[in-house]
Write a structure and sequence with these properties.
Length: about 325
Amino acid sequence: MNSRVTGKFPIYSSRFVGNHFRQTANIVSTLSIETIRGHLEQNRTLVDAELEVILPPEDEYPSSIHKAMRYSVFAGGKRLRPTLCLEAGRLLGGNEKALLRVGSALELIHTYSLIHDDLPALDNDDLRRGKPTSHVVFGEATAILAGDALLTLAFEAIAHSGVDGSNGTAARTLRVVDELARAIGTIKGMVGGQVVDMETTDSTGDAARLDYIHSAKTGAFIRAALRSGALLTEASPDDLDRITIYGEKIGLAFQIADDLLDVLGSEAEVGKTIGKDEQQHKATYPALHGIEASQRIAARLVDKACEVLEPYGSHAQVLQGIAHYIVGRKQ
């Protein structure tokens, strides 16, 4: 057992009432949603400042591509994936500077995926985070290149995240690069999930196929964000196992919540077109399992994610709170 682990933390449990989670009466409450939002905002400020350092300025030649890159990166968003990297690393005593650099690089990868996901050849979305999508503003060719450039820049940033020369830094950085490359690749990664998503409709999808899509397209990168934070530390095998399980649970819960938002949310809240999953006959949790069953599945995943972090006691409260926040969010 990891020497940093002291005691046990009370098991969290939650259930859906209407569209919201409520703690059961005999269970110790986690951090409030307001506290978690405040924590996310603090991390967002740190990440945005780091992104300003990483990204070329708009007037850097050729300016057209740099304007497009910065437009999408700074179009909004809570910087959830960087926060997950930061909090996993902080939980295990990681170096803040390295965690912030790698976490910010994750946001570049995430933004690349959104730009490409919105393209006419894929989801053909005109709105993202309440603003016109990249291809609408800059044209399809520039949007494709902006996504490519962000992905490339992300790995450049990660390569320079461990230049302090501390013991084992290069090996840890290499493990992070391997982790992320796999998470966004074709075998149980983001690209593979996107391909299967394109090839699946609500009439051809089953539970196993849908779980593959969600786990690969969305969950793999969320899990990798957490594991990246852990890999930058002296995490024990037990630490990494717990972080991995937590990431797998909240990654799937996040995508189920996203499916539900497409049915229950509003365009003003979500910041993108609502109801497109049904219009495009996509396989989703509500389409396959129904709304209430999907809510129950998401709630159980959150319970399991929080439970696996019990050995860290109160030190894990932020990650446990984020798990609850993920399924209760409206955007």
